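>> received
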Amino acid sequence: MNEFDQYEKDCKHIRKENKKLLADFEKELNKSKKSSKTIKKHVMNIDMYLNNFLLYYDAKSAAKGVTEIGDYLGDFFIRKCMWSSPEQTKQNVTSFRKFYAYMNSIGKVTDEELKQMQFEIKTFLPEWVEAIRAYNDYDEDEW
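>> returned
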């Protein structure tokens, strides 16, 4: 099997795992009594991250994705998602916090990984928001 075929096989396996994770995550969110619109938004945000970004360059599982949020929100989301905005970034952050807290509760990510992700979000969120503003401002030469 060549490298690309292995990548495709790995992605297929990960997508299957992701489908179950997303369904279970949605069930967990339903317990919180959030509106169906809010729950759908969280699931869609995480689905985009898991099944597009984490599989874009390499086949990475949801658990390994806990360390990739900065690359997603600080670059990929800005350039590849035409709906990216400061507000959408903040919504994604909320979705990530909820999803990875869930992943921690089921033993898929460690307490340390969760704390590191939370620290990264707290530290870099202002930079990610500013990067979106700069990218969307065509007068900026930053991008």
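>> Helices lie at 3-31, 36-56, 69-80, 86-105, 111-136.
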